[in-house]
Amino acid sequence: MRSEGKPQVGHKRRGIAHRFVQHRRRGRAPLAALLAVVGPGILAGLSDDDPAGVTTYSILGTDFGYQLLWAIPISTALLVLFHLLAIRLAIRSGKGFVAVVRARYGHTAAKMVGAVFVLANFGTICAEFAGIGAVAQLAGLPTAPCVLGAAGLIVGLVLTASFHRIEHVLLALSAVLASYLVDGVLAQPDWTQATRGLVVPSMPLTTGAFIAVTATLGTTLAPWGLAFIQSYAVDKGLSRRDYGPERFDVVAGSLLTGIIGTFIAVACAATLATAGRHIQDARDAAQALQPLAGNYASLLFGIGLAGAGLLAAAIVPLATAYSIAEAFGKAGDLDDAARADRLFYGSFVVLVGLAATIVSLPRLPLVPLIYFSQLVNAILLAPHLVLLILLNRDAQIVGDHDILSARWSAAAWFGIALVVSSVLALGVALLTR
Predict the structure, then answer these.
(1) So what's the pLDDT on residue 73?
(2) pLDDT at 26
(3) Among residues 33, 53, 49, which one has the least CA distance to residue 374?
(4) What's the pLDDT at 14?
């Protein structure tokens, strides 16, 4: 938790309790609690539908049609489970993930975990800006100025705005992802086949299929998303009484993530797979949709990609900056002035600036970076999930009366088994290819 003696600098926080009272006085008592806490679940969930995620879902539908759609609802169920555990740990410990590791296992372990997050997340940050560059190319604009301009806008927002202003802008950006729902309808898919693909698992024994399923797990349930939702919930000031309504926020965000991912895959399955097309990234999908599903489908796909890129290009660096600050015993605070929290804001600016610069370099092979960054996420996911369970069951962290129940623990261990199995299956497929 933040120290009570911490100087009040920067923007004044509008606390959860204050917002609850405001909503209640306006006669919105049934919705007051939800309106006060909404944000962490929606943002952490929908940011998984980033350019890397859009690329992964697009390739899943293009290369395999409706056959591997079942991987998305499974990933979505795991997202609900582990995001709830992350929120639970945030509320009961009052700390972000790396801060909890530091409190329980010491500063050396925390710095190691923070370093792993930096290494794992930087490729994803580059992938987000690569998505913004892809949108610029779709619109016939120069890539480098657009990417660097987007980076400047994101940095300016985070450095100058208050916590809730940043949150409102990010929530507005997340609404743009609804364009993918319209895209799925415009593609006129075979909903019978799509439904069968969602509920009846079918797995071609090919390396490409194993890569697609593992990448889907990695893009839907990413370590940076788990770190972000926990640190962000602490920064937002959620307390134990907020846990009930916040669970709705988490479930809603996770379900929207899975629904949008499904519509992306379905749109590509109904058009590109049927036409025998192959794509390398989300930009290819948007271009290929134009002759097959019409100009509006292509335009909406591009708009969704732009919104996804901007949203995730802000959230992934924030998640990483939170982790870096926590590794050194500090709590990142979006209501602090930049000069008062140089480690947190400095890390954010360096990550955004370096990633945007790298993506702006000519002839850089970005497609492998986008797609395989999701595989890296899947490989690093299991250790994070194991720690998440152990810390939720640690009385020193959550208290004697709040230890994770045996039923929840069993569900979480089963989820980890699914993640590990997919990674091992991928390894076997690669070795025997």
Answers:
(1) 93
(2) 52
(3) 53
(4) 46
| Residue reference for tokens 């194993």 | 210
Q: If you average pLDDT over every residue of the chain, what do you get?
A: 81
**What is the 3 state secondary structure string of 150-197?**
HHHHHHHHHHHCCHHHHHHHHHHHHHHHHHHHHHHHHCCCCHHHHHHH
Q: Is 398 helix (H, G, I), strand (E, B) or coil?
A: helix
If we measure between CA atoms, which residue out of 199, 220, 267 comes closest to residue 61?
267
Query: CB neighbours (10 Å) of residue 6?
Result: 11
179, pLDDT greater than 70: yes
Tens of pLDDT, residue by residue over 271-311, are 888 877 777 666 677 776 766 556 677 778 888 888 888 88
430 CB-side CA count, 13 A = 11
Q: Which DSSP state fits 400?
A: T
For residues 297 and 185, give the distance between their C-alpha atoms in angstroms, rounded to a whole number: 9
Residue 416 and residue 386 in contact, taking contact as beta carbons nearer than 8 Å: yes
* Interatomic CA distance for residues 168 and 311, integer angstroms: 12
Give CA torsion, residues 63, 277, 302, 156, to 10 deg. 60
Any idea which residue has 């602090």 for tokens?
Answer: 336
- Residue among 326, 310, 317, 313 at smallest CA distance from 349: 317
Question: What homologous superfamily does CATH list for 39-236+247-431?
Answer: Amino acid/polyamine transporter I (1.20.1740.10)
Q: Confidence band (pLDDT; 50, 70, 90) for 161?
A: confident
Q: What is the pLDDT of residues 56-110, one digit of tens each?
A: 888 888 889 899 999 999 999 999 999 999 999 999 998 999 999 999 999 999 9
Residue 83: name the closest of 203, 266, 295, 254 by CA: 254
Which candidate, 261, 293, 262, places its Cα nearest to that of 277?
Answer: 293
Helices then strands, counting H and E runs in the chain, come out as: 20, 0
In one-letter notation, the amino acid at residue 335 is: D
CB 421 within 8 A of CB 88: no
List all residues 6 or more positions away from 108 whose beta carbon is below 8 Å from its beta carbon. Answer: none
Query: Is residue 41 within 8 Å of 253, Cβ to Cβ?
Result: yes
Mean pLDDT value across residues 24-32: 51
- Taken as a whole, the chain contains a residue count of 433
Q: State both tokens at 77.
A: 């169920």
Contact 163, 16 (CB under 8 A): no
What confidence score (pLDDT) does residue 172 get?
A: 84
Q: Which residue has the higher pLDDT, 258 or 422?
A: 258
